[in-house]
Write a structure and sequence with these properties.
The chain has 152 residues and is of the alpha/beta class. It is 32% helix and 19% strand. It has two domains: 30 residues, no CATH class; 117 residues, 60s Ribosomal Protein L30, Chain: A.
Amino acid sequence: MTAPHVCLPCRLGFANRNLWAEHIRTAHTEQPVGPLVFELPLPPNLANARWHWSERAVRQRAYRVACDAAAGLPAPPSMPLAHARADVVLRSLRMMDADNLESRCKWIWDWLCARGYLRDDSPQVLTLAPVLQERCKRSAVGVRLVLTPEAV
């Protein structure tokens, strides 16, 4: 079971009781969210990687910075999504097998959780559609992700 999300203002506290009440009333209500569409850079292939733990951490940090810098990112919802479906199209130079496709998406799920789009990347929260792939030119390499909120 995942812990309930606590937003940063709630963790820091409020000096004024009225401000706190207004924050709770507006920020802690589930707002209806439409599908979120992301165009992200292609993460590295982790299935056969034999990196030292520190090199892996540096590469993951660099990937998160690249995702943050991606143009046209939708704003995160007011509360992280409790249930969502992810449809992914991975565009790369070469076709990959199914296990490489799944492992290549791991850093994307971690980034979505860290930035407040998803509550968790567990199967109870995130429903994964089969990852599709397309062969493309070097200039079009990347990931198209559609994150659709689902009802419980």
